[in-house]
Amino acid sequence: MSWETVERGIRRYKQKNGDVSYYVDATYKRRRLGPKRTGPTLALAREARIELLSQAAHEETFPELRKRPQRIRLTEFIQRYNDEYLKEKASRSWHIEKGRVKRIQEIMGDPFIDEISVADVEHLLREFRRRKLSNATLNRYRSRLSSMLNQAIKWDYLEVNPVERVKRFHEEKLGDRYLEPDEYTALLEACEEPLKSLVILAVNTGMRRNELMTLRWDDVDLSAGLITVRPEISKTKEGRSIPINEDVRAVLNELQLQQNDCVVPCASFPRRQWVRAVSDLGWDKTGVRRLRRWRFHDLRHACASMMVAMNVPLYTIAKVLGHKDIKTTQRYAHINKDSMFEAVATISTGFKKVRNGSITLDTVTNTAE
Fold first, then answer.
1. Which one is the CATH code of 74-165: 1.10.10, 3.30.2390, 1.10.150, 1.25.40?
2. Which residues pair with 240 in a beta bridge?
3. Among 13, 34, 250, 313, who pairs with 25 as Cys (CB 3.0-4.6 Å)?
């Protein structure tokens, strides 16, 4: 089974038995139309899409003909949203996002979906602000509510999303996120196992936290020198292979002695260890902007920054990180496995060059997301 975008507003779905169906959608004056299943040929799909747009234009001229949205209250909608959408789309952060949805409902109550107004959205965010939440957290709640109401539009409960008329909050930019060699050494010294191994793996592979926590020994090929990130654990839902450098190999050799199914020998991320390590280093309140409120995810930025400092092409870095958002650079770059091995090998030697003054990190920009 596979999906393929044929042209704008038309997608082709091929089943295991070879049968093909076409689905069409369109946008008319910010109203989403479809998706609608059509016949088995592209010609029929094109006709169906034209009909969708014509019908929308006709309904604008004669509003009494427009199909009114179904009415549903917020509580009932959230039950469907959690079961049919959130579990699949936010599978890696299911409990966090479910909690956000619950807190949104606690403040908004149980109105009909189509009665939620811009004023209601602004009231919700004011209530969260009174709880002294950061602008970044407020934006996460705004985004979750927007996602909910966009899904309500797709399910014909709503025509317009009022969140679109509410501005996002300004978020403080902490600047470039990278580690000097002595800072990296200090971090390792502040960490106990298994956190210390996690830090080394994160800095030297650029893997995301969830990718590391779900990594199995079946995904590691020490003889070939490769780690495979499976599509189902990747944020982008695309698999990739990451070469193993000397620092990663040393850690893997130690972890292999513990004989666990998973590479990292703990059921969940050691959050308390991490918070304590960052606090002991003073990075939770430091005046150095690039270190302030240092997160585990920032080790991914540190990995990318080191490769940039070592003049590794951005396209190669994107392949190592599984990063898809540098299309402009990709037009002019070419990648092969040899360059990927070379790219990852630079990380473990990069800190040595910074230490002896051969290169500097202060002008490196973030490339990891």
1. 1.10.150
2. 229
3. 34
The number of C-alpha atoms within 13 Å of 212 and in the hemisphere containing its C-beta is: 31
In the chain, ranges of CATH 1.10.150 domains: 74-165
Block means of pLDDT (10 residues each) for the chain, 369 residues, are 83 82 81 79 87 76 54 91 80 76 93 91 93 89 93 87 89 70 90 92 92 92 92 84 93 87 87 90 79 85 81 82 59 45 74 76 54
pTM of the predicted structure, to 2 decimals: 0.59
Contacts for 217 with CB less than 8 Å, ≥ 6 apart: 256, 260, 261, 262, 263
- What's the confidence (pLDDT) of residue 87? 76
Give the three-state DSSP class for 316. Answer: helix
Whether the bond into 40 is cis, omega within 30 of 0? no
Contacts (Cβ under 8 Å, ≥6 apart) of 318: 324, 325, 326, 329, 330, 367
3-state secondary structure of 21: strand
Looking at this protein, which amino acid is placed at residue 141?
Y
Domain spanning 181-355: CATH superfamily = Intergrase catalytic core (1.10.443.10)
Burial of 367 (0-12, 13-18, 19+ CB in 10 A): buried
Whether omega for the bond prior to residue 265 falls within 30 degrees of 0, making it cis, is no
Q: Residue 80 and residue 92: Cα distance in Å, rounded?
A: 19
Half-sphere exposure of 231 (CA within 13 A, CB side): 2
